[in-house]
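thought: user wants a sequence for this fold. calling inverse folding tool.
action: design(structure=
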């Protein structure tokens, strides 16, 4: 009887240790909206709010990134330094592209305006309430 009791206690302890190790190895507790794993600390920590940036500024940054991606898809030879140098000015960027491709400035500028208008979303990506 004592042997069975001792064997049961040892097996139960081994089971609990193995379960703890597996839980530690698993890591993340949940999944966030984007599908990325979320740790326990992230899940229960208070949300961070940025008071230094408005929603409109964040939206403009997102649109600028979409436009930059569309332009980079059309002109893969452009580097990050080229975009920084022009500072988001489509006229300067058109001049740089026209210089490198030996095309007319007005033609390149019109193409950039078309790419920019097609890249901007017409509807918000969040649900309206």
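)
observation: tool returned 129 residues.
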């Amino acid at each position: 009887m004592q042997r069975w009791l001792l064997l049961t206690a040892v097996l139960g302890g081994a089971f609990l240790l193995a379960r703890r190790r597996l839980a530690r190895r698993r890591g993340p507790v949940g999944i966030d909206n984007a599908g990325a794993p979320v740790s326990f600390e992230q899940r229960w920590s208070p949300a961070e709010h940025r008071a230094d940036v408005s929603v409109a500024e964040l939206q403009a940054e997102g649109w600028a990134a979409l436009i930059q991606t569309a332009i980079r898809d059309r002109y893969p030879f452009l580097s990050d330094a080229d975009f920084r140098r022009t500072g988001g000015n489509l006229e300067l960027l058109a001049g740089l592209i026209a210089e490198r491709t030996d095309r007319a400035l007005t033609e390149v500028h019109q193409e950039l305006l078309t790419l920019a208008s097609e890249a901007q979303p017409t509807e918000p990506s969040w649900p309206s309430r």
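thought: summarizing for user.
answer: Here is the designed sequence. Helices lie at 2-26, 40-44, 55-74, 80-86, 90-101, 105-119.
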